[in-house]
Design goal:
4-stranded antiparallel β-sheet; mainly beta
């Protein structure tokens, strides 16, 4: 299994239907990319919202994970909301997205959402193209694959190497430290992912926090995460 660069491009077009007056329309480009290498571990591919007319919002949320034979799986959802403002949580329509993209073979995807309830008529069209290519990590510096790969070694009482497990690289992520069966990762936007791993270094679960304005994560130990603020005070 090789490290994969997965990219998505396309457009979201939405319409706020007006009973009186002209319908309002908006569109926005969709662009996202992720580097994935650990089987089954999801990475965010794109997360975005498009508002239109002060009443309608379209949310697109997609994650990607790598599967055997370098196939990648895209999972997520597209949702259409309509209410008193664009922050409404009144869901009118949604579509679950679950597709597989073969290596070296672009795949297209279309979704149509519609408000068919009383006073409806709002709609959204989503057109996407996904690509799945091998990441030439060794020749990359900065940009998409700028995350670091880690190798977690298991050693005996004399420090002799027994086994190891590698993870990454993940775009935008840097491993800060390992302690108590946890790996702490920091993203470029300073939100964190705290991994729980087993005795062989395999990922069991993870939990993300942040980002929090002005705060930078430093380390994890003994069930505590140390953060430092821009004014140099800390939170443990």
């Amino acid at each position: 299994m090789s490290t994969r660069i997965v990219q998505v491009s396309g457009t979201i077009s939405a319409m706020d239907h007006e009973t009186f007056g002209s319908n309002e329309r908006e569109s926005a480009p969709v662009s996202g990319e992720a580097v994935v290498s650990t089987e089954g571990f999801p990475s965010e591919l794109v997360k975005m919202s498009l508002g239109v007319g002060g009443e309608v919002r379209v949310d697109l949320d997609l994650n990607v994970s790598v599967r055997p034979n370098d196939v990648v799986r895209i999972e997520g959802s597209a949702k259409l909301f309509e209410g008193d403002d664009e922050n409404t949580q009144d869901l009118e329509d949604e579509e679950a997205i679950q597709i597989q993209v073969l290596p070296g073979t672009p795949r297209s995807y279309k979704a149509g959402l519609a408000n068919t309830g009383f006073g409806g008529g709002d709609k959204a069209d989503i057109v996407l193209t996904f690509t799945n290519e091998e990441a030439n990590v060794g020749l990359t510096s900065g940009g998409l694959a700028s995350g670091f790969r880690v190798s977690l070694w298991k050693v005996d009482d004399q420090g002799e190497h027994i086994s190891f497990k590698e993870h990454g690289p993940f775009a935008g992520w840097t491993a800060l430290n390992y302690a108590d069966g946890r790996i702490l990762w920091r993203h470029t936007d300073n939100h964190i992912s705290l991994w729980k791993v087993d005795d062989q270094g395999e990922l069991i679960s993870f939990k993300e926090h942040g980002p929090f304005e002005g705060w930078v994560p430093l380390s994890y130990d003994d069930g505590k995460i140390l953060w430092c603020h821009a004014d140099n005070h800390i939170s443990l």
